[in-house]
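Dear colleague,

Following up on Tuesday's group meeting, I ran the structure prediction for the two-component complex that the binding team flagged. I've pasted the input sequences exactly as they went in, so you can double-check that nothing got truncated or mislabelled along the way. The structure tokens for the whole assembly follow below. Feel free to forward this to whoever is handling the docking comparison.

Inputs:
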Amino acid sequence: MALPSYASPLERAWHYAYLVICAMVFFFLIAPILVIVPLSFNAEPYFTYTEKMLSLDSEGYSMRWYDSLLTTGMQAAEAVRDGAWWSDLWHNADWVKAAKNSVIIGFWATILSTVLGTLAALGLARPEMPWRRTIMAILISPMIVPIIIVATGMFFFYSNPCAIVGLECGRLTSTYTGVILAHGALGIPFVIITVTATMSGFDQSLIRASASLGANPRRTFFKVVMPLILPGVISGGLFAFVTSFDEVVAVLFIAGPDQQTIPREMWSGIREQISPAILAVATILVVISIALLTTVELLRRRSERLRGVAAH
Amino acid sequence: MSDVASQLTTADGRPLKAALASAQARAKRRAFFLVLPLLLFILITFAVPIGQMLQRSVYNDQFSKSVPALTQWFAENPKGSAPDEAAFTALASDLLLMKETRAAGDAGTRINYVVSGTRSMFTKAARGADKLEPPYMETFLDLDEDWDEPQIWNAMRSAASPWTLDFYTIAFDLERDADGKLQKVDENQRVYFRLYIRTFVLASVITAICLVLAFPIAHLLATLPMAKANLLMILVLLPFWTSLLVRTTSWIVLLQGQGVINSVLVALGIISDDGRIQMIYNQTGTIIAMVHILLPFMVLPLYSVMRVIPVSYTRAARSLGATSWTTFRRIYLPQTIPGIGAGVLLVFILAVGYYITPALVGGADGQLFSNMVQFHMTKANWSMAAALATMLLVGVLVLYWLYDRLIGIDKLKLG
């Protein structure tokens, strides 16, 4: 993107203006995410940088909001930090409970959407697949349909799933199963998109080659197909996990008090009285997303290498 | 030729044509069976709930389930007939039933949706339903002189059947006058029309800003060498991977009255301490936060199109004497149209149905379509919520169909 030597002064000026504009857009994208990180160490309950913070005085910084994350909701937060205190923390602290719920729901929703999604992507990649376009459109729709419509629909349906056949059979609202099913459905599009993208570079003749060498379909799948598409599957799974981990509207409608997740706690935190403790959670989530993004990027490169797509 | 083909057979004597057809059908079935579990899962956990909810927009039995006598009177008397003593007798017997089943509030609410201010007439009459005396017509008119209003009786006639279009009528800012004709509601009560306009305008503004911001950086990413581009791409992808709530929180922290931007401006002396700018909990806040959230959805499709535009085209244009502006306008820009189309449609679709950010930072005038659906849900007005949801869904699905036709849903990439 170097400037050609024949560029006129005006073009040069425009080129530098363009670079400045780009820098500003990148700044706009990234600064809001980073600005909250130091603020979460604020010693004061303010949302702006105090003078002590700006002068890098260690008194201006503290871990108090991280501490309050742990202790809110505990029965004896002030007790000596021994085994009983940690067990109290594990069982009673609000944010710990929320984190546990987020992980449980995210894990099972990811398993659900990754297994079903990968199977479907394998089918969609076959040249004989009938009605591919329509089916693809249906499978991607959870990403497109506004979440409020999905959540209200699920709220009614899950409060009595058998009503559709005119029966009563208990409810799925306020259960883990309900939230997991909902998040599983919402994660599907991401798995489908990621895995079909991986499959698009997949050489179908490898399957025939494997079959002609005497491998049965199962052996072909685990020995030939799986190793090649695994990076794509893992990326899809991570996308599905992040979708569930970040989802709040379906949780608002479907979950009961026992299934409060991290986003759900943040939601009420932001709506009621926003405290720097929220910023501490946000910082932790930013660190997690950096870790996930790095993983996905590494997987993508590995996948491109495996498929022989030259880096250009 | 076809004769020859039909004569060819496989080793076990079947015609080759038939063998091929059955093999192809088998391959089709196999491929379909791989997709089937997921398709069933999506249908049951996703499509059926939405379909069932949509049905509520045209089905509401709040009133009809507790008025057997009135339903019969409506069936016996044609539309437009004035309520007579028999009608009020039927009403009295139904109100007595409502008192026993405690359904008066529900039934009254249903009529209240169509003719406001009528809920209390039902609850009041039902409370004293066991003391109502013939002649019923006079008794009711003593209770409330509005009881013979044709508007109320028209509303009851319509609500006596659970299938109704009343909620769509309301959603189009229409009401029925005394003769049952549709008319526009008063100018200052046209809440829904204003909501549609606001949602459309805000979504368009957000899409336009996203396009303006995304275009230069997508171009930069597409023209830089791969290694540098990948590094800069992380700056686009990191927001994409960061929790929505985290990003919304960040904007609250930055934009609020005591927030970072205002404090910086005060410290620099640009604004005074009591002149802090209100940038959040209004439309400005919604636009800024949503642009930030949706920007990656614009950058990614633009980038994937721009990356494959050959540099030689622009060079050729320059060497043939075009100025840099002409080159951009006539050569480069037309080639990016597919990317612009994909990004604009995707961002617009996502913006129109957005819920979380407007709900948290929208204030009073930054609320969008989805927030109105949620509002009716909290008011337990299921049918109204469903009617609005249906309209939103239809709009989004039309855009989605357009996206699939123009760009193809399989072209969607994430990072």
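Strands of chain B lie at 174-176, 182-184.

Cheers,
M.
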